[in-house]
Write a structure and sequence with these properties.
alpha/beta, 9 helices, seven-stranded mixed beta sheet, 240 residues
Length: 240
């Protein structure tokens, strides 16, 4: 069964995810840092460092949201970063952020679907995603599109939630994710479904070795997984 934010609606997962992020876009950055106790910032930095040797010149940031991962990728000194998202609300906040930082000439944020990318084959040196692939309606199709638009030898770096498997972090994580996080998220964002959907979607996601197998199925090679903070999140690195 596909996990969706609004279980009482008949619309597709993609439509519901776009609606959800439109609803919470005004508080998204604040909640990200609050709910992760700021650890998400370190996770993004470590994920981007996986591309340091490749030195990509043109980077595609899928499910870019408000552009935090795109901003972090500037540490690689790329010539251009293209960020895409299906949420107009998230992009509105992201574009304002880029303009305020005077970076809109390097980071271009576009409304587009990760599963139907409006780009030519073999177009990007690297494709990155932070906390976005589990929101794809069709994971195989989304990963296939990432593979298609990468140049031969191009790399992908994916940062995504996973699940701790050892005591006591497993029990602490489950309690926080299921009992605490949804309540805080609901109070601050005003959306009762968004932060219930988050643990539900993480629970459904094929993390670790299973996700590496999914990457291989999409055509990627040399896949590896780097667990972060007792397995709460993981970095996946692979190449075309």
């Amino acid at each position: 069964m596909t996990v969706v934010p609004y279980k009482d609606q008949q619309s597709t997962k993609k439509e519901q995810v776009a609606e959800m992020f439109n609803q919470i876009s005004h508080r998204y950055d604040f909640l990200n840092h609050l709910l992760s106790l700021g650890i998400d910032i370190r996770w993004r930095k470590k994920a981007i460092r996986q591309l340091r040797e490749a030195q990509p010149k043109h980077i595609l940031d899928l499910a870019t949201g408000t552009g935090d991962f795109a901003l972090e990728s500037l540490a690689l000194k790329p010539e251009k970063v293209t960020g895409i998202d299906i949420s107009a609300g998230m992009l509105e906040h992201g574009r304002k952020k880029m303009k305020d930082k005077e970076l809109d000439h390097i980071i271009d944020l576009q409304l587009a679907d990760s599963e139907n990318l409006p780009f030519d084959d073999n177009n990007f040196d690297a494709a990155i995603v932070a906390f976005g692939v589990r929101n794809f309606e069709n994971l195989d199709r989304g990963l296939g599109e990432m593979h298609r638009v990468l140049k031969d030898g191009g790399k992908t770096v994916i940062l995504e939630f996973s699940k701790p498997e050892k005591f006591p972090m497993k029990q602490i994580y489950n309690f926080y994710f299921k009992a605490i996080l949804p309540k805080i998220g609901r109070i601050i964002s005003g959306d009762s479904a968004a932060y219930t959907y988050l643990p539900d979607s993480v629970n459904e996601f094929p993390y670790g070795e299973k996700f590496l197998q999914t990457l291989t199925k999409a055509g990627f090679k040399k896949g590896r997984c780097i667990p972060l903070t007792f397995g709460i999140s993981s970095i996946y690195v692979a190449e075309k």
